[in-house]
Specification:
DNA-binding, mainly alpha, 0% strand, 63% helix, 8 helices, 215 residues, homodimer
Chain lengths: 215, 215
DNA sequence: GTCTATATCCCGATAGAC
DNA sequence: GTCTATCGGGATATAGAC
């Protein structure tokens, strides 16, 4: 990251940032598969070797895009689901925001979940994901006991994620109307899960009066 | 599939089927992005031009894999969720089977949902999806009024899909243990959604006071 | 940090022979 | 239906100059 005000002699003051932006642009137009370092370089008017001064390879650029995606994701979450309403409504708002993000920033969502990027090989991505995950858990915890919060969190996250993915598959139709439909459904599902959250916890603790341990 | 004794010489009895199988194999090893007609041909010991006698291009082979995926998906569903138990349990079993399929046939699931294949451009895929979708709706319909069945179906499908996708992302861990954890969670979420299905319907019709019938 | 130039490799797709 | 041969294109990555 070059210091600000360092608008230099060549083309861009910050090729690194420009590459990230162009990657997003390109993925939006042609999908993840249609993105390449070479094409991004061409579009920016730099040599195809220039990106290697900032990224070791193609995957590292994608990882940088993923980091940016999580940061934006987190930022939009704070503004979308930070009203001090009832806890259940906050959680529903998060699910709604999750789906809306997927609809509004499809290329970013594609990089996060459809690019086949191995996040374990890129610690920066994991680190960028953490605050996002924490904010999510903070919304869930007041709604259930400590032990059960993990179950509710997993359920809501999966539900939101499923709606987002199917939205991008076109299952809810096209355009902004589809986004709102999917987001609204995800929010309702969340409220339903909160109401019936007692069914989500696994009866793995035989101390409870319930029986039927599963195989 | 080919004649059992027709081994050597140059060709297979059924190159088309062999290509589909090899494609699945390859995708399992290298991901969708690492699959190519050339590599599949090499692995089968045929010329790189041979596949073009059976598929117009790369996408058509992927579409054939997708058709196979939906057929297998449907077949496993019938055996997994066909017990005549309570309706809610059947639906939960479908969600469980959905996730298990993703875990057991990851390459097929990848082709269906992560290959970026435009299903609208391949009618065979849509056709193969239909029986699957029908079986799903047949499980949902007895559980809610006609008008509301679409809401419950969308909710359960999205929940199952979300668990499946996050399973393949590694969010539930690795190995068969992760598959069963995700599948069990999807089943529980389904039961929770059934119980609170009255929250899923949109109140767009203020004239109808009659909510979903209990069961 | 960027450029020029290049090495290497792979891929999709077609033409024409058998 | 499959093979041989090939064209045209594009990608990753490195080396060395400025």
């Amino acid at each position: 990251m070059p210091g600000p005000g360092k608008r230099d002699r060549y083309h861009h003051g910050d090729l690194r940032a420009a590459l990230i932006g162009t990657a997003i642009e390109l993925i939006g137009e042609r999908g993840v598969r249609g993105f390449s370092l070479a094409e991004a370089s061409r579009r920016l008017g730099v040599a195809v070797s220039a990106p290697y001064a900032h990224f070791a390879d193609r995957d590292e650029l994608l990882a940088a895009v993923a980091v940016h995606a999580y940061e934006l994701f987190y930022a939009e979450f704070l503004t979308e689901a930070n009203q001090d309403t009832a806890h259940a409504d906050r959680l529903a708002a998060m699910a709604r925001g999750y789906v809306r993000f997927a609809g509004a920033h499809r290329p970013l969502f594609d990089v996060l979940f459809r690019a086949g990027l191995d996040k374990d090989r890129h610690p920066e991505v994991k680190a960028a994901e953490q605050p996002f995950a924490d904010a999510f858990m903070d919304c869930v915890r007041p709604l259930s006991g400590e032990a059960a919060s993990e179950d509710l969190a997993a359920a809501v996250e999966a539900a939101a994620h499923g709606h987002a993915m199917l939205l991008l598959e076109g299952d809810f139709g096209q355009g902004n109307e589809a986004v709102e439909l999917a987001a609204e459904r995800a929010a309702r599902v969340t409220l339903a899960l909160v109401e019936s959250r007692h069914l989500l916890t696994r009866p793995s603790r035989p101390s409870a009066p319930q029986a039927t341990p599963n195989a």
